[in-house]
Design brief:
The chain has 13 helices and twelve strands. It has helices at residues 24-29, 46-59, 78-90, 105-117, 131-137, 175-192, 194-202, 209-226, 241-250, 258-275, 283-293, 304-311, 340-347; strands at 2-6, 12-17, 36-42, 63-69, 98-103, 123-128, 142-147, 150-157, 162-166, 317-318, 321-329, 332-339.
Length: 349
Amino acid sequence: MKTIHIEASEPYNVLIGSGILDKSGEIVSGLLKSKHTVIVSDDNVYPLYGKRLEKSLIENGFSVDSFVFPHGEESKSHKTLIELYNFLAEKNITRSDSLIALGGGVTGDLTGFAAASFLRGIDYVQIPTSLLAQIDSSVGGKTAVDIAGGKNLVGAFKQPKVVIADIDTLSTLSEDFFADGMGEAVKYGMIYSRELFDLIKSGKIKENLQKIIETCVDIKREVVENDEFDLGLRMILNFGHTLGHSIEKYYNYNGISHGKSVATGMYLMTLAAEGKGIIEKNISDELRECLIVNNLPYETEVPDKELFNGAINDKKRFSDNINLIICKEIGKAEIVKMPVSDFEKLICN
């Protein structure tokens, strides 16, 4: 098992390895204030791993309740959040009790935001079971729900007490969901590590899976420790997300997954930057090849104007400017502040 320590405002460890789900009760018993906890999971993940987690917790002295909601991005909403709040109230959850997020990015974001806001804040644990959640969304403390106006527009920073990433849980992912996680992995290579990008581009993923997860988490550790609250360097983690979120919104968060939207967003932004001479040519060619190897898309049918309109409502807009993340070379990202009018010209050909 690999331990990566995150020195955030509330320090915690990310544990990465095989077979550690069944040790969860032992791991969290010394970290949580009380022995009453609520597992939050969706109806895909809970049947696979919920009872195993409950067993481990009960064997370590916990009393456990479970809240299970319908899977899918559409559940990352205020409707589900209010249902969770009411469940916690019914179970008499106090400020010393805790939540455990068991699942992918939707579960982690929803649970984290509930933990940040219920009773003005209670502890929570991340147990990510998707590749995307293990390499990205479970680490760093960003939590949120979606609203009609856009993705993740209502949220809070809330660091977990620990992240338990059991790579064995990835064996039950479909190829489609696995590819979704690889979208974020490619992002980490593009913004921070040519070596990681080349490994991912080689297609040798399964035999290097733990190494890829550890590398992505370690990159995020370095970025978060330098800019926990997303005021500077951490913005580079948004590479591909400005247009990616716009694509998700266009399809009402139900037509294309997050990782695939980010993959397309990375390529479109890189291609547009090349076309305007902002970066050198041929970077988009390498990125496209890497995406194809990993079963990820690089094109969209969303009209340029709709991409632009969705993007300008994103969190990365500040007044009449928008912060764009552009990779002038593979392994190095830059934050480019651009007037919204220039951004429109960049996207709308």
